[in-house]
Amino acid sequence: MAQKWGHTSSATNPLIGLEEAARFAPEIDKALQVVNERGDHDVDPGSAESSQYNFPMRSVIVVLLFAGSAFAQDSSQLIAQAKKRWSESPHGPMLERILPPTFELRRMPDPGSRGARLLVQYCVQCHNLPNPAMHHAAKWPPIFERMVVRMRGKGNMGELMHEMMAGVQAPSEEEAGVLLAYLQRNAQKPIDPRKYPEIFAPEGQAFKLACEQCHVLPDPMRHTAAEWPAVVARMEKNMEWMNRVVGNRHPPDEPQLRVDEINAFLVKRARKE
């Protein structure tokens, strides 16, 4: 029977010691699938033939991992360059306040894709790294179009916009299409109220009240039970950051963010691991 290869982790393979391995799992699994499809001949796992068969598979994985490491390094440099440019610009404080700084590079979906690279290349020129899930797919096109217009030095602020965008590069039409597709593909998946009618019951009140202030209510199946608390904690930081930026003062009768109830609602309905 032909030897089959499954997903390889750093815990079982010393070749995968980079943190990016976990983020590049989809690309690695695709490579393994190709190897499996071609390995339709019987191979003894302990034979010399097995070692020869194993070498190209491992080589593909190593190349992918080095590509992931290079992507992370290049992206970090672009982000650092953008922050330096903001610090030297009279408009820097305005640009830095557009988006919260809580979405980290390591959390980017499909990091090996061209769309991910373009997101870092163009979007961090003007603000902190955006999370594709900050909007649902239908909302991204008009927002993205507005951003591209601004990168070209135009928009609703006239000469000020042209001055703010000095030195900023805009994507080509082809690049814009790839970038928008990436954002929509990884956008927020709205909850189906027919599937979760309890969002209108007391059990779902805290979740509904808090989350729909900033975006569509997310489908609980988007994350596992183990992942949701960290996601909710990041959203809580985003809300605190937004209040600090705009200088809002909490009215005494403002509903409080009930994190425990939000987590309980999401964890109960989360995607199975």
Can you tell me about this structure?
- There is one protein chain.
- This protein has helices spanning 20-23, 25-38, 48-88, 92-96, 114-123, 140-151, 158-164, 173-185, 202-211, 228-246, 259-268.
- The longest helix has 41 residues, at 48-88.
- The chain folds into three domains: 20-68; 89-185, no CATH class; 197-268, no CATH class.
- The two termini are 30 Å apart.
- The protein has 273 residues and is mainly alpha-helical.
- The protein contains eleven helices and no strands.
Could you give the topology of this structure?
Blueprint: H1 20-23, H2 25-38, H3 48-88, H4 92-96, H5 114-123, H6 140-151, H7 158-164, H8 173-185, H9 202-211, H10 228-246, H11 259-268
Helix pairs in contact: 2-3, 5-8, 6-8, 9-11, 10-11
Strand content: under 5%
Number of strands: 0
Could you name the ranges where pLDDT drops below 50 across 5 or more consecutive residues?
1-25, 39-43
Q: Main sheet, how many strands, which sense, barrel? A: none
Structural class: mainly alpha
Question: In angstroms, what separates the terminal alpha carbons?
Answer: 30 Å
Domain count, please report it. Answer: 3
Round the Cα radius of gyration to an integer and report it: 22 Å
What does the oligomeric state look like here? single chain
Number of helices: 11
**Helix proportion:** 40-55%
Shape: globular
Task: Determine the mean pLDDT.
Answer: 75
Order of helices and strands: HHHHHHHHHHH
